Amino acid sequence: MTSEDVPSGRIAGDGHRESASKEQHRVNDRRSTGELEYEVLTQLWSMDRDATPAEVLDALDTDLAYTTIMTILTRLWEKGLVSRRRRGRAYAYAPKVTEADLTAQRMQAALASASDRRAALSGFVRSLDAREARALRALLDTRPRRNG
User: Fold this and answer.
1) Range 33-95 classified under CATH 1.10.10.10
2) Distance of CA 141 to the CA centre of its chain
3) pLDDT, tens digit (0-9, with 9 covering 90-100), for 111-138
4) Which of 2, 28, 71, 118 sits most deeply, having the most CB atoms within 10 A of its CB?
């Protein structure tokens, strides 16, 4: 039997073969690790206390597996974005950064990776609506001046 004799696609949970196009659709529906991390962090920010993976999973109302949530929380802990402490047999996690601080860190990282920081800043400023531009101006006006 050659590879051409084998039908394409993956074996579904019921033992039947899915078509290649259906398999591709399933892959396209998957969220990236970054999206999942942000979803879990958003849930932690909305909770008033630290939470175990099971509590996060229940609050998310998702079809993700418990082990997936546990892996995401472990990665967030390894990145220093959440703290954890033992609660029974599991860990309970709490955010170490606010959403605003994480966004600011990501914006700074994006700016640092630009070959022309001034052009990147210019493009960002042009993308702001009038209200956002006024808010940015007010923040810049009240910012302490750096020496040098």
Assistant:
1) yes
2) 32
3) 999 999 999 999 999 999 999 999 999 9
4) 71
